[in-house]
Design brief:
The complex is a heterodimer of chains A (about 325) and B (about 290). Chain A has about 325 residues and is an alpha/beta fold. Chain A contains twelve helices and twelve strands. In chain B, α1 packs antiparallel against α12, α3 packs parallel to α4 and α5 runs parallel beside α6. The chains are: A alpha/beta (about 325), B alpha/beta (about 290).
Chain lengths: ~325, ~290
């Protein structure tokens, strides 16, 4: 998604002189295309994320469209109050770009895992949150959200090779994408871990279970209406996210189900345990937290079994 | 609530510090709130800025000089300056600390004349740096003034902003420190000693000067000066609660159970007696 982001941003910047790119001294082998093409509009702000967001606020008030880039945790959590009182409070078009979804920074360890950023950013009404699932969707999302009047937080993945089957670069604020239909169970996924959900659905089909796969890629304005209209026909819903269960996808789906009185049961897969000091590559982390393809298949099977056992005759 | 477009209003050539003090005292008393000492000590700084320094025909002119009150707890002093300048209707001052008001303790950018919302220390100066960088990039002659407190310099983000502004040689940035020597709970020297403030900023690459923060002519002479290459700091030496002797000395006249402490008037509202004495002192110095 990183290459798609910078390519999309270069394209936008060529047509819009308001765009500037700031980085908290990160983005090696990623941001160079922008820096080389627009050196006067590229700013290494140093390892100082609070000031970066403050400066972005001052620039945006004067008419600029600043993109502030860092690793997800550093871009969102460190300057959280600056985001809240700056671009969100003033409703200025600052774009905050957090790199590295979930466990993507693997061996860099827990300080680099973006497991709360979506929940924390979602806590701010007036901040749009965009979480593409693959590179093609990133390309569309960057273009479609560039002219939003308010601020945006992007959670992007480093991996440029991910391509979710059936997603085909679709993105629309306030809408979800159903990339596979099925009548037995709905699997809702967010971010690059959607690839595990899509793969699990293929495995489930071989077991005779038809799973729909739905991708949630944005909040504020959220897809409550759209997702709510889809979930009504399912008895079982599974959410999959490389994120804690607070404030992210599970919280979003649970709120829709509860407030609309939708008659389905939700099984939320996410990070439920506090850090234990261990680290590992992304695949290992997904397995450890029960978020990988095989775990999803296992959970769907358990949910289905429970539903069939408790079904009214 | 949206900012309303400004109508041309009378511009006052001179903003009288004692008139500002009367507004601060009367509105603090009416609203029964504190932060009085913090407001009284920045009166001359704001008077100098709004009477002589800030280049702004109208509060919504896009190319006006920007002002960021990074020490947002002096909001009432800013409202007083805006009112005397004619940018805020005098009667609107009576909504200070009212319900559903735009005039809270800390200034709100939804209020015409307030460039940025502040209230969380260490944030305004970062925004000011961005505003100065924006002016540079746009080839504008507009300048950015930012008032911070000495206690605010405890915040690490202040030093992030200081380093970046020096690195980018933002000579259009003018920061003023209200050096009153105290912060919320104690004297600054007893919390995070910064007695060599000018030296610290010079070490980071700033041009510094020091003035009597209660002399409008001295402030006018110092503010806006630049060597063209470095960001600028004016250290304004001030007295907390300036203009009301018992506040300057930290004496809580009515609450005799409290000990004499310079920080008292960071928090206390005034009793009727204290208000009467304070107003008499301010009136006598006009």
């Amino acid at each position: 998604m990183r290459k798609a982001f910078i390519a999309g941003l270069c394209e936008l910047a060529a047509a819009d002189e308001r765009i500037v790119l700031m980085t908290g001294d990160l983005g090696y082998m990623a941001l160079e295309p922008f820096r080389e093409r627009f050196p006067q509009r590229f700013f290494n702000m140093g390892v100082a994320e609070q000031n970066m967001i403050g400066v972005a606020t001052g620039l945006a008030e004067a008419g600029f469209l600043p993109y502030a880039y860092s690793i997800g945790t550093f871009a969102s959590l460190r300057p959280f109050e600056f985001i809240r009182n700056g671009p969100v409070h003033h409703q200025l078009p600052v774009r905050i770009v957090g790199m590295g979804m979930g466990f993507e920074y693997g061996h860099s360890g827990p300080t680099h895992y973006a497991l709360e950023d979506i929940g924390v950013m979602r806590a701010l009404p007036g901040l749009s949150v965009v979480i593409p699932a693959d590179s093609a969707q990133t390309a569309t999302a960057i273009k479609r959200t560039s002219d939003l009047k308010g601020p945006v937080y992007y959670s992007l993945g480093k991996d440029d090779k991910i391509s979710i089957p059936g997603l085909n670069g679709q993105f629309e604020m306030g809408r979800v994408q159903m990339i596979r239909d099925g009548s037995d169970v709905a699997i809702i996924a967010m971010g690059s871990i959607t690839q595990e959900a899509a793969a699990a659905a293929q495995d489930l089909a071989k077991l005779g279970v038809e799973a729909a796969v739905i991708v949630v890629s944005n909040f504020h304005p959220g897809a409550e209406e759209h997702l709510g209209s889809i979930l009504g026909r399912f008895r079982d819903v599974i959410t999959v996210e490389a994120h804690t269960l607070s404030g992210g996808l599970a919280a979003f789906a649970a709120s829709i189900i509860a407030t609309r009185g939708i008659g389905c049961r939700l099984r939320a897969l996410g990070v439920c345990t506090p850090p234990d000091g261990t680290s590992g590559n992304q695949d290992e982390r997904w397995r450890k937290h029960g978020l990988d393809r095989a775990s999803i298949v296992r959970q769907v099977s358990m949910v289905r079994e429970f539903s069939l056992r408790t079904a009214s005759p | 609530m949206n900012k309303q477009s400004s109508q041309p209003m009378a511009i006052h050539d001179s903003i009288n510090p004692q008139a500002m003090r009367r507004i601060i005292l009367s509105q603090s008393k009416r609203a029964n709130v504190g932060h009085i000492g913090s407001c009284l000590c920045v009166v001359e700084i704001l008077a100098a800025l709004y009477s002589s320094i800030l280049r702004a025909e109208r509060p919504d002119d896009p190319d006006r000089d920007r002002f960021v009150l990074s020490k947002g707890h002096s909001g009432l002093a800013l409202y007083a300056a805006l009112a005397l300048k004619g940018w805020l209707p005098l009667e609107q001052l009576d909504t200070f600390c009212g319900e559903n008001t735009l005039l809270g303790v800390h200034p709100e950018s939804a209020l015409l004349g307030v460039d940025f919302t502040t209230g969380s220390l260490g944030q305004g100066i970062c925004i000011a740096v961005g505003a100065a960088l924006a002016a540079r990039l746009q080839g504008s002659q507009r300048r950015v003034f930012c008032l911070i407190s000495d206690g605010e310099c405890n915040e690490g983000s202040v030093w992030e902003a200081v380093m970046f502004a020096a690195q980018r040689r933002l000579a259009n940035l003018h920061v003023i420190i209200d050096l009153n020597g105290q912060q919320a709970l104690a004297l600054t020297r007893d919390v995070m000693n910064q007695s060599n403030m000018a030296e610290r900023w010079r070490a980071f690459g700033w041009r510094t000067s020091e003035v009597d923060g209660h002399s409008v002519p001295a402030l006018v002479g110092a503010l806006g000066k630049t060597d063209g290459g470095s960001p600028n700091l004016v250290i304004a030496r001030t007295v907390f609660g300036k203009g009301v002797d018992y506040m300057e000395r930290g004496v809580p006249l009515s609450q005799t159970h409290l000990t004499v402490n310079p920080i008292n008037w960071h928090y206390l509202p005034m009793s009727d007696k204290e208000y009467q004495i304070a107003m008499e002192q301010v009136e006598s110095r006009v």
